[in-house]
Amino acid sequence: MKSLHDAESVPLRGGPVLRWGILAPGVIATKFVRSLKRHTDQEVTAVGSRSRERAERFGHRFSIPRAYASYEAVLADSDVDIVYIASPHSHHKTMAVASLEAGKHVLVEKPVATSALEAQAISDAARVHNRFAMEAMHTRFHPRTSVLQRLLEDGELGKVQLVTADLGAVFPLDPTNRIHDPALGGGALLDIGVYSVWFAVFVMGSPTHVQCVGEVTPTGVDGQSVTVLTNESGQLAVATCSLYTFGSGEASVGGSDGRVLVPSRHPAPGGLTLYDARNEPVAEYVDRSGLVTAEDGLCRQAVWAARHVSDGLTQSPLHPLSMSVRVLQVLDEARAQLGIVPTPL
User: Fold this and answer.
1) What is the pTM of this model?
2) Distances in whole angstroms, Cα of residue 42 to Cα of each of 144, 231, 298
3) Burial level of 209, CB count in 10 A (0-12/13-18/19+)?
4) Which of left, alpha, beta for 66 (phi over 0: left; psi -120 to 50: alpha)?
5) Are 167 and 72 in contact (CB under 8 A)?
6) Distance between CA atoms of 80 and 222, rounded to whole angstroms?
7) 245: helix, coil or strand?
8) CA distance 67 to 48
9) pLDDT score of 101
10) Among the listed residues 336, 325, 321, 334, the one whose alpha carbon sits nearest the alpha carbon of residue 117
């Protein structure tokens, strides 16, 4: 079987280095910093939390020089170039705009905000203050994504007809968990479905019609759903997400001349297989970087961000905020159809 190769990879070490500040040292921040420490030369110089004890504990764990009892102190630190915002979704817009106003570049954990309107506000602030801002959609920066993009651009699949993407996880119904809290932007669509919707929009562009069916939990967030996207070319995409089951975790792109299968779990690092029109496997991409888990892959977005900042950019050409806005427009419509509207701070 033919081997496919990635042409867009950047080395994880030896390139531009930024001094990072971490805002909100929780679970995802732990994974992010652990990935940076293991695989890159990026420097984490400060961490801030509303709890001094929490900040100091995080700082001690990862040998971070300065731990602050507020986010504002990190933003005032002249030794911080860029901040990684890992707070609940509901705080992303406020914290990102404050960071940009303080002169910091920002990488905001996905989803970049809880609505397209909030995402646009972050984009506007980045432009006004001439600072780099990007959503931490780590999937975009895995090598197989550029392999898929090249296959699409080269017409290997013919006309794309159907895109599917599934992702789920099992979260016990705990009202105290932020994923079940509407005020914190909880629910499957924003937390997990954003990956599947992003995949669909990445492949087929902005949809002209969105239809979503699903279930709302007793706490008032979406528990699981199926979102169908259509566009002017007649292409269809089906994006599924769930807080109740892991599902297949696969993604696929079906065309008139072939198809691509991205195995479970599709947001994480890994390979893909190309099938021909007879559904025979004819080529594959194997990620030999050694980054295997989703946590491992978090470092790539940081290395790309450092490269973009070094190049003087305020947006990522690979994942601009306009893409984040388009994805959130889909999520806004899907959530509205389930009776869920964003809760602004």
Assistant:
1) 0.96
2) 23, 40, 12
3) exposed
4) beta
5) no
6) 37
7) coil
8) 6
9) 98
10) 325
Tokens of 48: 């801030």
96, 76 Cβ separation under 8 angstroms: no
Rounded Cα gap, residues 37 and 41, in angstroms: 7
Q: Which residue has the tokens 């159907």?
A: 162
Tokens of 1: 């079987």
Secondary structure of residue 61 in the 3-state scheme: helix
Look at residue 7 and tell me whether its pLDDT is greater than 90. Answer: no
User: Taking the CA atoms of the chain, what radius of gyration do you get in angstroms?
Assistant: 20
Using CA atoms, how far residue 197 sits from 136, 283, 333, in Å, is 15, 26, 12
User: Where is pLDDT greater, at 343 or 197?
Assistant: 197
Q: Which helix (H) or strand (E) holds 22?
A: strand 19-23
What confidence category does residue 345 fall into, taking pLDDT thresholds of 50, 70 and 90?
A: very low
SS3 164: strand
